[in-house]
Amino acid sequence: MKRYIVKFRTREQVPGSPPPSHIVSSALGALIAISAVTLLTQTTEIPFMMAPFGATCVLAFGVIDSPLAQPRNIIGGHLIAACIAVLCAYLLGNTWYSHAIGVSASIAAMQLTKTVHPPAGATPLVIIFAQPHWTFIFYPVLTGSLVIVIIALLFNNIFRTRRYPRYWR
């Protein structure tokens, strides 16, 4: 019988907190973005808000240098996951396996298209559970993603210590 030896890496230190100015600006950017999406929902009575957008704001305002926070990832990731989710909901209904297939297929599709955005992994769960009309792809998913990205573009570039996005393609 073969023995396996597990080698442990040296422990790395937990990164420190970002500077207070970064924390405040991250929170303010998220406040503005979520307020805009919520107000858009309330004034038009069209749903533009979904829970994964909270996590999207963590990336778009808190860790803007991450590849996962770039516009193509935010918009593309949510859009791809939404299309897969609507298809799963239509073909398989609100079942345990439609949720599992929706999330796993979304991960694979985001990886293939280089649009990985972790909050979009929750998009299929929201859509399949709600069983909405196919227009859910456009609002809230596409429209809400665009609003967050536009605010992130405007807000993050106000500060000379922030540059967003790092890339488009």
Automatic annotation (TrEMBL):
Keywords: Membrane, Transmembrane, Transmembrane helix. PANTHER family: TRANSMEMBRANE PROTEIN DDB_G0269096-RELATED (PTHR33741). Residues 17-165 form the HPP transmembrane region domain. It holds the Pfam family TM_HPP. This is HPP family protein. InterPro entries: HPP, TM_HPP. It comes from the Bacteria. The chain crosses the membrane at residues 21-40, 46-64, 76-93, 136-159.
